[in-house]
Design goal:
157 residues; alpha/beta; five-stranded mixed sheet; two-stranded antiparallel ribbon; 4 helices; 9 strands
Length: 157
């Protein structure tokens, strides 16, 4: 049975390395709002649009007191290249065993062009300073997602 998280649920704890090997834990961000977004693959068209959207809106997102963390199953080397190529200004976390992605319901069956497969979905979670989910996108749109997140941070919806 897939995990289904909703607004008001406690965010699952996580501990993942970023592109440089630095470990990030949810507890490290206690008292801050965390935008945790899951994406299928580095340097693919949709994922690039989404990452660049967060890059371009990061100053405004930060001004709302939030940090952005991207998560995929790609390795640290892939994340480093992706960050450098697009000048991404937030950490990309490595979830190679997909344990964290699974705990958030972002890893599982998906359909693309009518074909079912198992993989990472484009899901985003806003985690409040108390560790409770304040907004969940189970299937986020890649383009302009930074603006959608910014609107949610500002309005609480």
């Amino acid at each position: 049975m897939p995990v289904t998280l909703a607004k008001g649920d406690q965010a699952p704890d996580f501990q993942l390395p970023d592109q440089d090997g630095k470990t990030h834990k949810l507890a490290d961000y206690a008292g801050q709002t965390v935008v945790l977004y899951f994406y299928p693959r580095d340097d693919t068209p949709g994922c690039t649009k989404q990452a660049c959207s967060f890059r371009d809106d990061l100053a405004e997102i930060s001004a709302e007191g939030a940090v952005v963390l991207g998560v995929s199953a790609d390795d640290a080397d892939s994340h480093q290249k992706f960050r450098a190529k697009y000048d991404l200004n937030f950490p990309l976390l490595v979830d190679s065993d997909t344990e964290v992605s699974t705990s958030y319901g972002a890893w599982g069956e998906k359909t693309l062009y009518g074909r079912k497969s198992i993989g990472m979905t484009r899901a985003t979670f806003i985690i409040g300073p108390d560790g409770v989910l304040t907004k969940v996108w189970k299937r986020a749109k890649a383009a302009d997602h930074g603006q959608a997140v910014l609107k949610a941070l500002r309005t609480g919806r």
